[in-house]
Amino acid sequence: MRPPPARSLVLHREAERDPDAIGGTGCDTSPVNDENPGAERHINIHLSPEIMGGVYANFANVSHSDYEFTITFARVDHEVESEEVPGVVVTRVNLSPRFMRELIDAMEDNYSKWRTREGIKNLPEYGGTEAGDADADE
């Protein structure tokens, strides 16, 4: 039995069509298959209401082995005045090196778009304060 042709998945979300939507571009790979290099697959992801709500994290740790990356997301209490800060892991995600690179690219793209939008909001002609204030937190 001959294995099916290699396929990559392209994730299309509403946020890609609507720049004002929360979210952004998915992690895209190429090509879909050898027989039709221009074809795309559209992933239709269904979420339960509990998962759609997401989880809050204000801390992340990234580690890796020879085979995968692991991102551990946690919620920590920064208001505690002791040496040991309490926290709870809310989720861990294991990724292949290839997907990690695609995730980094998608995050950089989304962060750049967010920074641009926030910078525009801070221009005096748009009711913001001073143009340099957007970079004050870095």
In short:
The protein has three helices and three strands.
Characteristics of this structure?
138 residues, alpha+beta, three-stranded antiparallel sheet, 3 helices, 3 strands, 17% strand, disordered N terminus
Please provide a written account of the structure.
The protein is α+β, with helices and mostly antiparallel strands and 138 residues long. The chain folds into two domains: 1-45, no CATH class; 55-111, no CATH class. Helix content is 24%, strand content 17%. The chain is built from three helices and three strands, in the order ααβββα. Strands 1-2-3 form a three-stranded antiparallel sheet. Strand 1 (59-64) and strand 2 form a beta hairpin. The chain is extended and about 60 Å long.
Task: Present the secondary structure layout.
Elements: H1 14-17, H2 49-52, E1 59-64, E2 69-76, E3 87-95, H3 97-121
Antiparallel strand pairs: 1-2, 2-3
What would you call the shape? Answer: extended
Content-based structural category: alpha+beta
State Rg: 20 Å
Query: Distance N terminus to C terminus?
Result: 56 Å
Contiguous low-pLDDT stretches (5 residues minimum) are 1-25
Q: Counting H and I runs of at least 4 residues, what is the number of helices?
A: 3
